Amino acid sequence: MAEETLPGTADDDGPDSIVLHVDMDCFYAACERLREPELEGEPVVVGMGYEPGEGHGAVATASYEAREFGVESAQPISTALERLPRIDDLGPDDDPAAAGHYRTVDLEFYKSVAADVKAILHDCADVVREVSIDEAYLDVTDRTAWDLAASGDRTLAEGFARYVKQRIAREVGVAASIGVAPNMSTAKIASDFDKPDGLVVVRPGEVRSFLAPISVEEVHGVGPVTARKLGSLGIDTAGDLAEADASVLEAEFGSRGRELHERARGYDDRAVTPTGRPKSLSRESAFTDPRDDIEDKREVVRALAADVADRARSRGAMYRTIGIKVVVPPFDINTRATSLSGPVDDPELVESVALDLLDAEFAETTVRKLGVRVSKLSFADADQSSLDGWESAEAGETGGDGDERVSDEREATAGDDGDDEPPNTGGEAPSRGGQSSLVEFD
């Protein structure tokens, strides 16, 4: 990562990295809307542990429409439903906008949607750090630049981030808010600045002025308790924190005090570090309109299989499981797989197995999206001890892989070599007719 700074960049901003923080908006509620499109625009509450007539259970996610009625995350579901009655409880003359829909958390479904999102992120960046089911950091320093686009009204980095947002919306159907900045902490703050579906770019040299007016509690790493202590010192904004005496902060909070002081000044030298080696390599393609013609489906599977096998070979990876993913309207996800007796590198076998799995069960099925995956990977450059440890960890997550129906515990997605990078980061994302671009799936 280059250590030079662009002209006009303040030293406190640190190196001119380009970091994206991608945060999915009301993710659980957005997933529920994927399989129930009629929930679009309606107040949606997602929670767990609720039984009618009992006070147990808490809200996991509330859509923005539900929040307008005072529903919040971690709120008792019974309280939320009092503020936001179910649609079935309303009379025929009541306004539907005042109604709410409660859905129980379906984590496996949410993981499958998150895998589709994160596959796009890996496709768009060489370094991705997944920090939760709906949140990730991307280092795109080598993919774009802080230079102005040809139009002169925005940076190339902004065009790149807009492309990422549009791919997520087009290929998965959910909205993401993205913050773009020279470091991780500022990018995270920026992603939360204009929700939902926001895009906020903080250029080098602008970090400190961007941070100065925000509440000190919004500084990455400052929680409510620390914010109250800072308030007792007369520090209410990030600007106050940046101007404070670092030695006083260190005396009050230890080394963390100096770290918060640096972040308020716009300096955060943490590198975006990836979350380990991939456990699978996969590609998927969505049809513009659902298809039932078997030859259309077979043609797509052949292309996906060739691409996945080629990527595995380019990375020196062998695989012991070959599988497909079939998404049936509206959003019913089906995965099937075949386990092999040992690791192989065989493109023809990938195609043959994938087609057999498709023909066996989905020949006449109307499908929205198809995918091909190879998993249980081993790498030529891995020593045996590290490989054993990695595979043991994977087995603990998935419960083994001896059945043709893949475990519902989704594996982490692989990174990509960047062959689908936007051709012009200064413009809008390129439009695509027919099939969407190839992306990974998990």
TrEMBL record:
Task: Identify the SUPFAM superfamilies for this entry.
Answer: DNA/RNA polymerases, Lesion bypass DNA polymerase (Y-family), little finger domain
Provide the cofactor list for this protein.
Mg(2+)
One cellular component term from this protein's GO annotations in UniProt: cytoplasm
User: Which positions does the site annotation Substrate discrimination cover?
Assistant: 28
Q: Name one Pfam family in it.
A: IMS_HHH_1
Which keywords does this Swiss-Prot/TrEMBL entry list?
Answer: Cytoplasm, DNA damage, DNA repair, DNA replication, DNA-binding, DNA-directed DNA polymerase, Magnesium, Metal-binding, Mutator protein, Nucleotidyltransferase, Transferase
Q: What does this protein do?
A: Poorly processive, error-prone DNA polymerase involved in untargeted mutagenesis. Copies undamaged DNA at stalled replication forks, which arise in vivo from mismatched or misaligned primer ends. These misaligned primers can be extended by PolIV. Exhibits no 3'-5' exonuclease (proofreading) activity. May be involved in translesional synthesis.
The protein, known as: DNA polymerase IV
Please report the organism this UniProt entry assigns to the protein.
Haloferax volcanii (Halobacterium volcanii)
Name the gene for this chain: dinB
